[in-house]
Amino acid sequence: MKKIIGMILFLGLGFGSYAQQDSMKHKKMMMHQKDSMKMGGMMKMHQPNFDKLKTDLGLTDKQVADWKKMEESMKPEMDKMHEKHMAEMEAMHEKHQAEMEKMKNQKNEQLKSILTKDQYEKFLKSHPKLGDKKMMPRDGKKGPPPPPKN
Where is this region: Disordered (predicted)? Predict the structure, then answer.
């Protein structure tokens, strides 16, 4: 029985750490995309490897030059389209955040009408601050909890 419980805990921790790593990879990828836009646009990030293509496809120097010219001519339009889409995504994110904040406020108001004043105050002290992702400060201290003492 102990082995089964141990195995379940082990697997649960393993899956949890894997999911967290995947989330971190996504965040790093998004930061990379933002940085690549600052350093010359999407085309730099997705520039074909012409040396490899020349070898693999047997391209002539003229074909490589024409392909590079085509890539460069499309770059401004593609960068403009990418910037437009990034702005749309940012606007959509802000709209979503505003809608979620509105719903949290409505939920908070309904909770106030359900609980007594004392219950509501006790709830606020013992639970994460409504609308905030971080927990309320402990003992008047801000930030994450201290590391465990050995």
Answer: 94-150
Domain boundaries, position 78: 50-132
- Asked whether residue 43 is domain-assigned, the answer is no
* C-beta atoms surrounding 109 within 10 Å: 9
Read off the pLDDT band of 61 (50, 70, 90). very high
Residue 150 is assigned to a structural domain of this protein: no
Two tokens, residue 70? 């085509």
Confidence class for position 43, pLDDT limits 50, 70, 90: very low
d(CA 84, CA 90): 10
Q: Which residue stretches of 39-60 are H helix?
A: 42-45, 50-57
Helices 117-126 and 61-114: crossing angle, nearest 10°? Answer: 150
Within-domain flag for 45: no
Please report where in the chains the tokens 């007594």 appear, as a residue.
116
What is the number of domains present in the chain? 1
Q: How far apart are the first and last CA of the chain?
A: 30
